[in-house]
Amino acid sequence: MADNTWQVYLSGEIHSDWRDQIKSGCSAKDLPIALVAPITNHDASDDCGVEILGQEENDFWKDHKGAQVNAIRTRTLIEKSDIVVVKFGDKYRQWNAAFDAGFAAALGKPMIILHDTNLTHALKEVDAAALAVTQTPDQVVRVLDYAINGNL
Length: 152
Fold this sequence. Notes:
The chain is an alpha/beta fold. It has helices at 18-28, 42-53, 59-80, 95-106, 124-129, 137-149, and strands at 6-12, 33-36, 83-87, 111-114, 132-134.
């Protein structure tokens, strides 16, 4: 099973280095994984719609355009992924991460959810749809290693 490359989509908050920690952990274990993610440059993600398709006077339409342009990448990568990891942080509400989790669940994608225990109640429905709920990037790497190689 480890002969195939698994595509893992890393959804969620962009204000910490959790993606880098997972990348390092997967590299250290030599896991056959291709990690993909949304655009993590906050300004680019917010402004892509108006920068590419034209300015808007109303913030609703600015955000609408940006969300649609970003969804081209997000939907395509989630659909092509073998596993979806969704990270929820404490500092900001990640509505987009919750949407990604719902989209992945609707597609039947295996999900690993990552968040601190203080968010357990708020994320109980998301957690219930996941196959693993983790608190650290290292736990995500260990779940991936077990799923791919059977290593504990």
